[in-house]
Amino acid sequence: MIKVKNRPKPVRFNVAVSTSEKAASLVSELKHKKKEFLTCLFLNSKNSLIKKETFSIPALGRGLPQAKHIFSAAIDLKASGIVLLHNSTSASPVPTRADKTIVRQLVQTAKRMAVNVADFVVVAKDGYYSFLNTYTNTSRTHSYISEGIQPSLFDLIEYAPPAYIKKETPLPDIKQKNQEGYFGIQNRRFLGNKFKLLSFIEEITNEKCGDFKSLCDVFSGTGVVGARFNRKDIRVISNDVLYSNFVSLQTFLGTKTLNLKTLEKKIGYLNKINALSDNYFSENYGNTFFSLENARKIGEIREEIDKIAENSEEKYALITSLIYATDKVANTVGHYDAFRKNLDSLRPVRLLIPDIDLANNHNNEVYNEDANSLVKRIEFDVLYMDPPYNSRQYCDAYHLLENLAAWEKPEVFGKAKKMDRTNIKSGYCLKAAPILFRELVENARCKHILVSYNNTGDSRDGRSNARISDDEMFRALSSRGEVEIFTRDYKAFTTGKSDIPGNAERIFYCKVVR
Ligand SMILES: C[S@@+](CC[C@H](N)C(=O)[O-])C[C@H]1O[C@@H](n2cnc3c(N)ncnc32)[C@H](O)[C@@H]1O
C-alpha cells in the first residue's frame, strides 16, 4: 500500500470527461506552448473530473519523474481512472517511437500501482492523438470509465501484437470492439485467464513453433488463447470440462453458419422480457448473488432461450450472451464461491451481441471433455496447456454459471446454493495432478508442447499451493524432448486478499522429439 502524507482533497469540477476529444479540449492552452507539459485529469467512476494537475517536464522521451506522484495521488483521490495529456512542441500530434516507449513504461508502472490509465493524449497545433483510440483501432471516441467492458490502456498495450511478428502473416486481434451492443470473448472475469499474457504466449509460440497449422488449447477456460491464434489457415481446437465454458467456446471459436441478423433480433427480444414472478433462478440466487429483479429476468430469459433457439449454434450464442451479461451484474468479486454482503449490483441485466468472426472458425473444433481422454483421440501441431494450478476447483468457483448454462434445475445446497458437482471435479486440483499431467504429456500426438504454470509457491492457505511441482513438470516434459522455461512477472488474479511475493507466470516449452 502506498502512503501519501498530504492527502489531496478531491475537487468537484462538475465536468464530465468521457472522451479523448473532451480531454484534449480541457488543455487547449498547451497546444501553443514552446516547453513540454503534462496534465493529469483524475476521473471518478462517472467520468467526472475530480482534479486536474499540470507539470512542466523536461521532454517526454526522457522519462517522467512525476509519474509516481501522479499515481499515488490517483490512489489517494480514489480515482477510477486517469487521463494523461502531453503537448507536442511540433505541429503534429503523432508520437515518436521514444514517446511510445515512455507511455508503455508509464502505463506499466501505473498497473503495478493498480492505477487505471484510461488514455494518453498528445495535443498539438494540428490536432490530437489518443493512444486509446489508436489501440482500439478506431477513430471513434471511447467512453473512458464505463461499466466493466472498458479495458485500461494497459490491457490494450499488453494486448498489442509483439513487434517482431512478420508483416506478411499478421495474427488477428481479438477486436476490442467495446462497441455499443457487442461483447468479445475476453469480456468476462475468469480466474487464471491469460488475456494479459497473450503477447507473451504468442511471442514464444511464434518463435518456437514456426508455421504451425493447428493448435489445441486443451484447458481453454475463456478461450482467449485459442482466439488469439484463430485465423483461416490455423485449426484451433478448444476444450473445457465445464459446459458453461464449452458453450462460449462454441460461440466464439466453433460457430460456422450462425445467422447473425436473427441472433441480434432474438437478443433484442430477450432484453425486452419483463419478469415479474419467481422462477428456479430467482428462488435460489435472488437477493444474494443478484437483485431479485435481475435474478427473475435471468431465469425467465434462460427458460425462453430453450423455446426460441432454432439450432444448437443459436442456442450456444444466446446462452453465452446470457452468461456474460449475468456475470456483469453479479454481486460477487469475480467467482461464485460466495456473494458480497452488501447487495449493490443493481444495474439491470442486459444481453449484448457476441462479436463472432465466422470465417476464421471454418476448420475449428470444440470439445467438452476431460483433457486426458481428448488428447488420446486427436492429433495437432501445438499443444497449449493451462491446467488449474491448485486445489481450487473451477466447478466450485463457477457452479452458478454452470447451472445456468446446463439448465437442468438440480437441487442446490448451502449458502452459495451449489449443485452436486461430482462429475465435473478436476483431477488436476487433486493429489493425482502430477500423474495426470505426465499421462497427458506422454499421450499427446503433437510437435510442440507449451505449458503455462504459475509459481504460486507454498502459502499458508493450502488451497493456493501448486499441485504440480516444477520438478515434476520438468521431468514429465523431458520425457518428450528438451525443455525451456520462459518467465515473466505477472500479477495473478487471485481471489485472496494479498499478492503472493515472487508470483511469476512461466511457460514451459518442449520441442517433441520422442
Ligand atoms: C487455468 S484455467 C484456463 C484459463 C484459460 N487459459 C484462459 O485464458 O481463460 C483452467 C481450465 O481448465 C479446465 N479444466 C480443469 N480440469 C480439466 C480437465 N481435466 N479437462 C479439461 N478441462 C479442465 C477448467 O474448467 C478451467 O476452465
Topology:
Layout: H1 20-25, E1 37-43, E2 49-56, H2 67-76, E3 81-87, H3 97-112, E4 117-124, E5 127-130, H4 131-135, H5 153-159, E6 182-183, H6 198-209, E7 214-217, H7 224-228, E8 235-239, H8 243-254, H9 260-271, H10 280-285, H11 292-308, H12 312-328, E9 353-354, E10 365-367, H13 371-377, E11 382-385, H14 394-397, H15 399-406, H16 433-443, E12 448-454, H17 470-478, E13 483-489, E14 504-511
The chain binds S-adenosylmethionine.
Instruction: Indicate the structural class.
Output: alpha/beta
Largest sheet: 7 strands, mixed
Give the neighbour order of strands across the main sheet.
10-8-7-11-12-14-13
Text of the CATH class of the largest domain: Alpha Beta
Q: List all distinct small molecules, including ions and cofactors, that are bound in this structure.
A: S-adenosylmethionine
Radius of gyration: 24 Å
Task: Supply the number of helical segments.
Answer: 17
Count of discrete domains: 2
| Averaged pLDDT | 84
How many angstroms does the end-to-end distance come to? 49 Å
Label the overall shape. globular
- Proportion of residues in extended strands: 5-15%
CATH topology of the largest domain: Rossmann fold
The percent range for helix content is 25-40%
**Oligomeric category:** single chain
Count of extended strands: 14
Give a description of the structure.
The protein is α/β, with parallel strands linked by helices and 514 residues long. It has two domains: 140 residues, Cytidine Deaminase, domain 2 (3-Layer(aba) Sandwich); 228 residues, 3-Layer(aba) Sandwich (Rossmann fold), CATH 3.40.50. The chain contains 17 helices and 14 strands. It has a seven-stranded mixed sheet, sandwiched between helices. A five-stranded mixed sheet has the order 2-1-3-4-5. The chain has a two-stranded parallel ribbon with strand order 6-9. Helix 7 links the parallel strand 7 and strand 8. Helix 11 packs antiparallel against helix 12. The longest helix has 17 residues. The N terminus is likely disordered.
